[in-house]
Amino acid sequence: MSVKQLFDLSGQVALVTGGSRGLGLQMAEALGEMGAQLAITARKADELAEAKSHLEALGYEVLTVVNDLQKTEDIPALVDQVVERFGTIDILVNNAGATWGAKAEDYPDAAWHKVMDLNVSAPFFLSREVGKRCMIPRGKGSIIVTASVAALKGTPPGMNTIAYNTSKAAALHFARTLASEWGHYGIRVNAICPGFFPSKMASGLIEKLGPAMIERTPLRRIGGEEDLKGAVVFLASNASRHITGESIVVDGGASLI
Length: 257
Prior knowledge:
Layout: H1 3-7, E1 13-17, H2 22-33, E2 37-42, H3 45-57, E3 62-66, H4 75-86, E4 91-94, H5 109-138, E5 141-146, H6 162-182, E6 187-194, H7 203-215, H8 229-236, E7 247-250
Parallel strand pairs: 1-2, 1-4, 2-3, 4-5, 5-6, 6-7
């Protein structure tokens, strides 16, 4: 098999959560370019419609599903819609996430539960549903979790994102543990740990810390619109068929310092 064939995703179906904007949309673009049929889900119908138009203009086949992953009882219906359209799910990108800024001593209960529900519980429940219905019966699949460099260390003074950091550390260990449990089914589970990328979630911090953040990054830049594409295609494809339970840090070297 040639290297080009190893990266080819033709005939595969990819479900990307939080796929209407930001990192999710960037990863959906990459998977579609390599031949995957796309299903993207998010809470806001207008943003999904805009993303669908964008992806279809690039020539990709796209299904959109409005879904709030915090409502775990609706996850089976989400999988139903994708399977009804495409027949199965080969690639699952657990990308949807949330954050909340507050000092630990003042952190609201509701905020903690929101971040944990979306960043930890939803990827488990969705992976369980996709795994038992699509991947385990077929003996193959790739699950990718969007974690964060925030999983690897604490945060600079003033960021106050204890729930987010904790949830992303949990996401890393979720990937490792599920990889060890499902490897014998032929299912691989890996994580991507982005650093700072322009997104709705990170925009405030980038505005606040931008120059200092870039100064502390060996490559002297923050993430761009194409910087996650190679990583997600690699982990989704046969190019990484002997890799599971691992994480790829995409942060310009910022976590080295």
